[in-house]
Design goal:
The chain has 475 residues and is an alpha/beta fold. It has eleven helices and 19 strands. The longest helix has 15 residues.
Length: 475
Amino acid sequence: MAGFDPFELADLEVLRMHFYLGYNNSCGELNDYWREFEFNRSAELRIAIASVKLFTDGGLCNAPAVSWEHPGTPIAAELQVSGTGDLYVTVAEVAAAVADVESRDGLTVIHAIGDAAILVALDGLEAGLAGGPNVNGHRIDHNVVVAPDLYSRYGEIGITPVVWGNFSSCRELDGRGWAAIMPADKLPWLRATPDLMAANPGLRVSFHSDVPSGWLDMFEQLWGIVTLRQREEETGRICEAPSWLEGHGVPVSTALEMMTVNAAHAMDLERDIGSIEVGKIADVIVISQNPLDQAGDELLDNSVEATLIDGAVVYCSPGNERWCDEVGSSDLGGELPATEETEVQGEAVPIVSVRASRVDPNFAIERVADGVSDSGGWVSGSGAPQWIELDLGAEVDVERLVLWVDQDPGGFTDHRVLGGLEPDPTDELARLSGDTDWGQRLEVEIGRTVRYLRVETVASPSWVAWLEILVISAE
Ligand SMILES: [Zn+2]
């Protein structure tokens, strides 16, 4: 984690990175280091330890676990697959891991590629959940070889399957793919996304890029899900999907859902990202073409014109500077909107220093007092009660406080405003109670001469946080 500090110091904490630590590693050896971390899946965090990943079979290291014997051919030997592959865990071990991770409020990302591994993953999840709903959202990633009799079990247990975008069609064409090591009658089990969806109405099938094991370009990924064609990175060669994948592509609209709302769902972040809705985090790209108007290879003809983070334009591609001009900010923060209804009346008093009962180290507390309401602020990283205290540096005749709510979910909150001439003020000057929600602006009358002001949140359904606090003097 410390390795990411330079990004934050350089104000480059632009990406949202949610890490999954290895419950075991890709060779199947158990790890323990993940127990030192608390899991956190708040989308507001730029960097979070979201939970753990459990490998049920080989892939990166060793071979996928399958229900047939890999052929003892030279190509199988070259691809390092033999026997029935490498199964790392039993059903009981998966069940124990799921219960273990659940007790720490985590979600288990289960790596399973071969059908034997997927069977163990599904049985283990079912046993681990013991008939209860999958509240934490344990999921299975990869799902490459799914036997048809397993399709409906995802829906029955409530497991989100996550699948790759591109299929490695070039390897198949070159005789180094699944067809070289798999019985011909089972080849249609590969990437049968439409069948998986048909067997589970309403099930959220998601996409993962799996970079660097997959491809980075999102438009290529979208094209890959739809066509199962692949563009070889080194040569640019376009490889047709093998005939046994006929009918395994999905419509563009479905692929877009897999890459956005369903992917957010798979990461347990759907509340905050994945679709455009009031109150969600506005991390958005503007693209040059509407994929819903495109078909087949046309999907490759697209590009990013602009990138918005937290609602502010942070990047415009060459030739598309108009996005930066229109929105008027290439700064991560952006200014307070100067429209009539949101303009703050009165003179803001400089805040000399800020401290709080608790500070999430992923957020710079000073930003709560930087005069910019949408650039992030103080996040306590914990539930109520929590307080934040402002030092005005001198005695000031304070007229009122203006506060921007950082709260998700919305709901009833109760805050006390305390003030005085000494730190740790105890005089209650005002009380703010009622239904509040993210981004809302609150104003509270003070009418007192103070140097220290403390906002103590007594009750909130969310982590205690403020986007911005302004102190207005009685000028
Ligand atoms: Zn994996």
